[in-house]
Design a protein that fits this description.
Number of domains: 1
Structural class: alpha/beta
Strand content: 25-35%
Largest sheet: 8 strands, mixed
CATH topology: Rossmann fold
Number of helices: 6
């Protein structure tokens, strides 16, 4: 495997929230940099985030993983939406400074992805050419709807949805019509048997590692089409 350079960074999330930590993971053959936000219940060092970053690196995608302020401060409840969205924007700015030679994409796991698209819908993220969602949280468990998708129609760059068929936060009967309505702006790639955390049961005949490998390969193929 090619060499991967890892750099620990800090940047100001918001004036009121202060600085947060970030990790830049850059393979020597990097072609893109993904600004990658974490899910609601765990930070940037969660095993999924680490495994995804490693696999993305194998496919030529550098990552800037970062903490939202509430995780940085050791709290469990997410910050108000304006702070989360401002943190996304600050992370993009930090990525532009950290790797000026790489084009940007952005997104994240669950909450991190939704906050990225929410920020992009309100105002385009500087330099970001596309968004990747690692399990878009379309609705709360057991409350199937597409209410959280309304802002996606205001995003004006391509979006890749990576979704497990057993994801309890994104019933495909609701997500597919959203992607269809988004037209060429959206690409939906599903993972049979995978849940919201991209875990698969033994009866699937696959392993979690194989799913992660497919995640990385799919993302790598998709960004190549961005130019």
């Amino acid at each position: 495997m090619r060499e991967i350079k890892i750099t620990n960074l800090r940047f100001e999330a918001t004036r009121s929230s202060g600085e947060v930590s970030a990790i830049l993971m850059r393979p020597e053959n990097a072609r893109w940099l993904l600004v990658l936000g974490h899910g609601a219940g765990a930070g940037m060092r969660h095993s999924f985030m680490e495994a995804a970053a490693q696999q993305l690196a194998r496919n030529g995608i550098a990552t800037l993983r970062y903490q939202f302020p509430y995780i940085e401060q050791g709290r469990k409840s997410p910050n108000p939406l304006p702070i989360l969205m401002k943190t996304v924007r600050s992370a993009v700015a930090a990525a532009l400074d950290a790797a000026v030679d790489l084009p940007l994409i952005a997104g994240g796991k669950s909450l991190g992805g939704r906050m990225t698209s929410s920020a992009a819908a309100k105002e385009p993220l500087p330099g970001v050419k596309g968004l990747i969602f690692f399990g878009f949280p379309l609705h709360a468990p057991g409350r199937q709807s597409n209410d959280r998708a309304a802002h996606l129609y205001d995003v004006n760059i391509p979006m890749l949805f990576l979704q497990g068929t057993r994801d309890k936060l994104a019933d495909l009967e609701f997500l597919r019509p959203v992607c269809d309505k988004l037209g060429t702006q959206a690409t939906l790639h599903t993972f049979e048997w995978a849940d919201h955390g991209f875990h698969v049961p033994k009866k699937s005949g696959r392993t979690d590692r194989e799913v992660i490998e497919e995640l990385g390969q799919t993302a790598g193929d998709w960004v190549m089409k961005l130019g």
